[in-house]
Design goal:
The protein is α+β, with helices and mostly antiparallel strands. The chain has 2 domains: 2-132, Phosphorylase Kinase, domain 1 (2-Layer Sandwich); 136-237, Transferase(Phosphotransferase), domain 1, CATH 1.10.510. The protein has 9 helices and 11 strands. The strands form 4 sheets. A 5-stranded antiparallel β-sheet has the order 1-2-3-5-4, with helices on both faces. The protein has a two-stranded antiparallel sheet with strand order 6-7. The chain has a two-stranded antiparallel ribbon with strand order 8-11. A hairpin with a 4-residue loop joins strand 2 and strand 3 (56-62). The chain is globular and about 50 Å long. The chain starts with a helix and ends with a helix. It binds adenosine-5'-triphosphate (ATP) and magnesium ion (MG). The site of magnesium ion has 3 residues, from loops. The site of adenosine-5'-triphosphate has 20 residues, from strand 1, strand 2, strand 3 and strand 5.
């Protein structure tokens, strides 16, 4: 008992009561054994590394108290999959988390490399941990110097957008801050799918264009303009 309390270090991690209850259920299910440390603290969510029976998992916990989701209404209420009336902030956060989980499944199905989604409950998403020996891979913004073939990576990311589009799905927040890169295997992963949406959302096209523009902008600085925005977009739309 004493040891368990020590290992959890709950006091330091300051979760609200509901979140603790959910985490407890996740432990009881045997998915994770303990939360190790916080990998990233963001405005809307924190990401933790958790010890699992085999290796590690990543646990993304959306913040309830300081949530700014009402400001992102546009992305939630325009999504035809989530037909709901405005309730409270907490429920909005839950819907956003479930949306990210479903989006991860869709992206994976489209053949894009993402952290495989494992479980979600309320404001918590459990997914594969992207890293080696418990150390997370760097973001592309911090690791592009380690990319051996930048042009190949550019086309590979455009291809991700294309693959998702073929399935009627868009990430909507692709940038060098939401791509992780494994320097050893020279391959990337898309992360942070909360904003992803489907084709019959009125802002779908706007989001596809935003993703393409971000990728073209970032890689143009690295390798020169291989494709204009318009060319990259028609590659995606084919
Ligand atoms: N599956 C994972 N494995 C390892 N690290 C991860 C994983 N998912 C996310 N991370 C790390 O956590 C960071 C934040 O994740 P993510 O981009 O999904 O959250 P976020 O929504 O951007 O948070 P915020 O917008 O509030 O800053 C990532 O930049 C990455 O470093
Ligand atoms: Mg992010």
């Amino acid at each position: 008992m004493e040891e368990k309390k020590e290992r959890w270090k709950i006091e330091e991690l300051v979760f609200d009561k509901q979140t603790l209850l959910s985490l407890n259920r996740i432990v009881k299910k045997g998915l994770i054994e303990e939360i190790n440390y916080v990998v990233s603290t963001g405005k809307e969510a924190n990401v933790y590394r958790a010890k699992a029976p085999r290796g590690y998992l990543a646990v993304k916990i959306y913040k309830i108290e300081t949530s700014k989701f009402f400001r992102r209404k546009k992305y939630l209420f325009s999504d035809p999959r989530f037909n709901f009336s405005v309730r409270n902030e907490r429920e909005l956060v839950y819907i956003f988390s479930s949306k990210e989980f479903k989006n991860l499944l869709l992206a994976k199905k489209a053949g894009v490399r993402v952290p495989s989604p494992i479980y979600y409950e309320k404001n918590i998403i459990v997914m594969k941990f992207l890293g080696r020996k418990g150390v997370p891979f760097p973001l592309l913004i911090d690791s592009f110097r380690m990319v051996e073939d930048k042009e190949e990576l550019f086309f590979s990311i455009l291809n991700d957008i294309r693959r998702m589009h073929k399935k009627g799905f868009v990430h909507g927040d692709i940038s060098e801050f939401n791509i992780m890169f494994d320097p050893e295997k020279q391959r990337h992963f898309l992360i942070d799918f909360g904003q992803g949406t489907v084709r019959n959302n009125p802002i779908y096209v706007e989001l596809v264009e935003r993703d393409v523009r971000n990728v073209v902008r970032f890689f143009s600085k690295l390798i020169g303009k291989k494709l204009s925005f318009e060319e990259a977009l028609s590659y995606v739309y084919d």
